[in-house]
Amino acid sequence: MSMLDSPASKYRAYPVLNLPDRTWPNKTLTQAPIWCSSDLRDGNQSLIEPMSPEKKFKFFKTLVAIGIKEIEVAFPSASQTDFDFVRMLIEGNHIPEDTTIQVLTQAREDLIARTFESLQGAKKAIVHVYNATSPAFRKIVFKQDKEGAKALAVHAAQLLKKYAAQYPETDWRFEYSPETFSATEPDFAVGVCNAVLEILEPTPSHKVILNLPATVEVSTPNVYADQIEYFGRHINHRDNVIISLHTHNDRGTGIAASELGLLAGADRVEGCLFGNGERTGNVDLVTMALNLYTHGINPQLDFSDIDSIRKVVEECNQLPVHPRHPYVGDLVHTAFSGSHQDAIRKGFAQQQADAPWEVPYLPIDPADIGRSYEAVIRVNSQSGKGGVTYLLEQEYGINMPRRMQIEFSQVIKAETDRTGLEVPATKIYQILQQEYLTANSPYHYQGHRLQESDGLTDVVIDVLFDNNLHTLNGQGKGPLEAVVSSLALDVDIMDYYEHAIGNGSQAQAAAYVQLRQGGNKAVYGVGIDGNITTASIKALFSALNRSLTA
Ligand SMILES: CC(=O)SCCNC(=O)CCNC(=O)[C@H](O)C(C)(C)COP(=O)(O)OP(=O)(O)OC[C@H]1O[C@@H](n2cnc3c(N)ncnc32)[C@H](O)[C@@H]1OP(=O)(O)O
Ligand SMILES: CC(C)C(=O)C(=O)O
After folding, report:
1. Cα 437–chain centre separation
2. In this structure, how many other beta carbons lie within 10 angstroms of the beta carbon of residue 13?
3. 124-132 and 171-179 as β-strands: parallel, antiparallel, unpaired?
4. I need a surface site. Which of 156, 162, 292, 454 has the fewest CB within 10 A?
5. What is the CATH number of the domain that holds 283?
6. Which domain holds residue 221?
7. Has residue 20 been placed in a domain?
């Protein structure tokens, strides 16, 4: 078997809705939707090993801490484990006042009865019932016509009311999903939902949630948005209905579909953290929320410590989050390539604390979600001077002059080309030491004494040369000129730069000297010392030795 030359013989596009007066393309998002996590139900039902009660409880507490107020915690009629989990939450009084648990059931009386039993004693709860309504499901799974599918939904709604009446101590809310909504004829989906509403009689205080799933994503996100806008226009009791989105990601556009669905008038989003869920996953609530945040909208969810949340999710789902996953992946705030690093480094340098975020290539300030800046720049053979410079600045306080950045990045490039590996900051500093700070041959500086008179500096320098101690004498307008004069070599100083590393009594001076010796090409040397003059003299010898041994 292989791919078909003519896939139309096997696959076809789903019909699209004719909605020429659609309004959603001209809208923008201005506020967060109602969020509902389906991690403990849709997420859980798609795992290789469903979560243990302990893991579910840990996940539940994490969802509460994030600030999610509606949490689909189980499919209680599916298993004793799920049933017991709901009981544990209720009997253990683990549900915060401002949080509502939600549970799912098929539209079957035995399952609905068991579902209500699991919720006995809850202060409030959402019971969510579904049946698939699309032509394929009617034909293949249920062997029903349209009337049959509608009757199943209506009967389910009647059962919700019947069983809710048996547990009057609970404040009940209801949710109905025409499963496979996005593959259902839009007018039929509206018809089924209107019939359900006639039974459930929504009110302003007890709105009914109509959840419109892209159970399998079958079209481009604009088609889903048209379906949502059409639904919102035609559904009865619109003011007492919460339109909820539940997108999956089969075509890779689950987030786009939910975002466009919100533009099209939806009020609520169901999904899972980091996009876990059946097949390619449910819509990722974290990405949706942080997409709002990076447009300046408070998502009403807290991801200030995104890595701790990821840790819990990975542990509970036993699935890793991809290193390229938006906002949270290990590599998503990291630049390896030279031009990105250069722009990021300049961006950080120019970013004012209270100004709008404007660091190139970083759509979010990693610090806002608890990430350090450590991993923002990493160096390999794709990197340039910006990355090397950034790491030395950040990790070691070394701030090389521009021309030395160019020279030193070539040294690092030679290393990355040789090994093909990343070079971490520690290794970069080690190379700086080997190449510059310990360039002690043939002149190994031992110490010096200075004397100033009449605007001139006299210097006496002790150096090891050929393993013998030599004392050199020189005079000049400053220490460096005096040292150069002591050498009796053809040396021109081309560039000099110095700065402090750290502050207070622990501060050190870093000095950079570029010199040209004889006909050799100009090279840099670096010296670091507690004394600025000593740092400069060390830098001069570092440059001289590098030139003589080049
Ligand atoms: C898109 C979604 O994610 S929907 C949620 C899916 N989640 C799950 O299924 C997880 C939990 N499910 C389960 O544990 C089981 O499927 C149960 C307990 C619900 C039902 O188990 P069983 O009674 O053994 O039925 P089974 O799993 O084979 O389900 C298929 C039957 O349910 C019927 N069915 C499927 N969906 C529905 C529905 N929403 N309402 C009513 N009946 C339905 C099918 O037509 C089929 O009936 P048939 O046996 O008469 O042909
Ligand atoms: C039950 C429904 C909401 C569902 O999970 C889906 O359609 O994906």
Report:
1. 39
2. 10
3. parallel
4. 454
5. 3.20.20.70
6. 34-317
7. no
Q: Tokens representing 256?
A: 């786009």
- Residue 212, SS3? strand
Structural domain includes residue 91 = yes
CA distance 538 to 516: 16
Structure tokens at 438: 């310990």
ipTM of the assembly?
Answer: 0.97
- 417: CB partners within 8 A, 6+ apart: 381
Distance CA 45, CA 266 (A): 25
Residues 367 and 458 in one domain: no
Q: 46: Cβ–Cβ under 8 A, 6 or more apart, which residues?
A: 276, 277, 278, 279, 281
Is residue 420 in a domain?
A: yes
Tokens of 277: 């869920």
| 238 and 265 share one domain | yes
Give the total number of structural domains in the chain. 3
| 215: nearest Cα among 295, 282, 144, 128 | 282
The two three-digit tokens of residue 257, written as one number: 């579909």
Give yes or no: residues 450 and 426 share one domain. no
Judged against a pLDDT cut of 90, whether residue 190 lies above it is answered with yes
- Determine if residue 282 is labeled as part of a ligand binding site: yes
CB 387 within 8 A of CB 379: yes
Establish whether 246 is an annotated binding residue: yes
What is the DSSP secondary structure assignment for residue 275, as one 8-state letter?
A: G
- The reply to whether ligand 2 has any atom less than 6 angstroms from the CB of 390 is no
**Nearest-atom index, ligand 2, CA of 213:** 7
The radius of gyration computed from the CA coordinates of the chain, to the nearest angstrom, equals 34
In DSSP terms, 379 is beta-bridged to 423
**Is the peptide bond prior to 442 cis by the omega test (within 30 degrees of 0)?**
yes
Pairing of strands 124-132, 523-529: unpaired
Among protein residues, the one whose CA lies closest to atom 8 of ligand 2: 215
CATH number of the domain within which 509 lies: 3.30.160.270
Same-domain check for residues 455 and 522: yes
User: Same structural domain for residues 537 and 398?
Assistant: no
What whole-number percentage of the chain has pLDDT above 90? 97
β partners of residue 105: 129
pLDDT tens digits for range 386-415: 999 999 999 999 999 999 999 999 999 999
Q: Are 226 and 115 contained in the same domain?
A: yes
According to the annotation, is 248 in a ligand binding site? yes
pLDDT tens, residue by residue, 214-233: 999 999 999 999 999 999 99
Residues 210 and 68 both lie in one domain: yes
Ligand number, closest to the Cα atom of 149: 1
Q: Looking at the CA of 282, which ligand is closest? A: 2
CA max distance for the chain: 108
Angle in degrees, 0-180, between the axes of helices 254-263 and 285-293, rounded to the nearest 10? 50
Cα–ligand 2 centroid distance for 38 (angstroms) = 10
